[in-house]
Sequence to fold (201 residues):
Amino acid sequence: MNKISLLPLRNANVSLSMHWPVFSPQECAQISAQADGSRWQSKLPVGPGNVSVFPDATEAKHIEFQKLPLGKNAYPLDQINFGTSQVNSDGWRFELTGIPADDMPWLARHKKGESKGIEWQVDLAESFTSSRKLCFIVQLSDSNSYEGGDVILHNTPAQIEGYRAQGSIIVFPSYWLHKVTPVTKGTRQSIVGWMHGHSFR
Fold:
């Protein structure tokens, strides 16, 4: 005999995105200054198993990456981790384990360049990316120093001004479609990373 299962507990916040100030302009400048000029690479980075860190991204010469340099007490990750864990408890309520050693955050640098079109991306895929639960983006550049480079979340009300604020962090589920519009003037620098957890529950 077929049994009708009880309704599962459902989370109304599965499409929630959050943003708030996490660093001052001075702190953003200090973080950016820690970048090693010789380590920028336009080649898309890969992780364990030669799997792309950015599964849906297309390689472009005007978009460069390098591993985020860490300071004392894993700064600036300590502040990112603390704030993201707090809002997760109030919003998505995912079981998080933190940021693993095999998927550390990246500095990203977007310059003006030709674009073949803006592509929607999802950061959850195979191998080490399969445990990503939340994506975070920290805006390091002064919003007046570049044009374009806006973070867009699919089917979500636009919050361009808040997302562009220097020192703000944007957090959203890793399974959510998103994209960054081409930079048309100047340079946009940001931190991109992910909070992980065991299989979704």
